[in-house]
Amino acid sequence: MLSWLRRFPHDVVHRKDNAGRRTSSSTTWRNRSTSFTARIIRCASSVVDATAKHDDDDDDDDCPLPSSPPFPGPAPPPPLAEEDDDRVTVVSAQAFSFRELAEAAGNFRQDKLIGEGGFGRVYKGRLPSMKSGGEQEGQRVVAVKQLDRNGRQGNSEFVVEVVMLSMLRHPNLVRLVGYCAEGEQRLLVYEYMALGSLEDHLLVPRDDRVLLPWRTRMRVAHGAARGLEYLHDRAVIYRDLKSSNILLADDYTPRLSDFGLARLLPLPSSSSSSSSSGAGRSRVMGTYGYCAPEYLRTGKLSAKSDVYSFGVLLLELITGRRAIDASRPDGEQSLVGWAASMFGDPRRLQELVDPRLVMAMQGPPASELKQAVGVAAMCLQENHALRPVMTDVVIALSFLAAAGATTTRDDHRQYHPSLESS
């Protein structure tokens, strides 16, 4: 494993808390003078080398913090590429100055705020959209995440997220537009997701939020599973799958976001399964309630850790409950613990359905509920070796997603005011 990934990230310690949130110690950001371009290409090339060669040997070359070009400056260059042993690594993230992003986000005014968490704040912004000839043709809407220097996303996580999202492209992964690493400022620019996070729609009660229909929930589950399948095929462990990290486009297409905890694993040898290859013992990082039991016990990370987290997410979609909810009675605070007792009893499966769906007479057909609960139960097996790989999960959910394919944006428009004006 590469040194910069092997050390990833030891300066931030995430611990359990009752709210199911990640907590962290304060982090000091460093800044060095070497150009961001050279560093990010070297990091990206190293990742490709590790994936292609399956080699744990490295040159101990540190990948220090990036820095944005000074402002003002020339127009941003096109995506960068570097040839190495007949391979080309493309880095597509664009470097922005802090002034550019501050202007785009309305100087980070409160009325531009669209999200907030332990990492910092997210603002809605507008950036110039340029033609190929360099002329401005309009504006594009983006989400600007300004990282809190004392928050949970530290320096190593910032670099990992820029590198990962520069190399990974999939319809179910959020797209990184660019970044800023000017002085002590750390900002990330993403495509704007009109409907916010899955958590907002599923777990945060609000009068202006539509009740997610069953079929839409299964489409979201299938899309999230496809995103994980894509990552695992490229030996990337997401490590922080949860409802707040799944963003929804205006047609409810899910996209995985927040790749600060993602980790690259060496590809397995021909005699082993990709799902069983581990990364060795490491400090446990993630969100309590979603972490696999063997990861909590041993610190050993594998693709099956993500599979377990997906099982928790699928249970949230079925039940409308949080993974950990301290406000519920004893025996029901842990979603997995509460639901596990019903997995083997078909007569009790209806008890798992979100009561809001039942009250709205939108509960799932018995056959679809049985299939969805069955997939969740397989993903939540205590023995990680018995859990399916994400490819099997995608196949198992494909029928439920296809059944919900007729649920479109128009079906939600009457309930969601933001869609009326879009």
UniProtKB/TrEMBL annotation:
Molecular function (Gene Ontology), one example: ATP binding
Record PROSITE patterns: PROTEIN_KINASE_ATP, PROTEIN_KINASE_DOM, PROTEIN_KINASE_ST
Membrane topology according to the record: Lipid-anchor
Any matching Pfam family: PK_Tyr_Ser-Thr
SMART domains according to UniProt: S_TKc
Keywords for this protein: ATP-binding, Cell membrane, Kinase, Lipoprotein, Membrane, Nucleotide-binding, Serine/threonine-protein kinase, Transferase
A GO CC term assigned to this protein in UniProt: plasma membrane
Ranges annotated as biased composition (Pro residues): 66-80
Gene3D superfamilies: Phosphorylase Kinase, domain 1, Transferase(Phosphotransferase) domain 1
Domain Protein kinase: 108-400
Protein origin, superkingdom: Eukaryota
Residues the entry annotates as binding ATP: 145
Protein name according to UniProt: non-specific serine/threonine protein kinase
Organism listed in the record: Panicum miliaceum
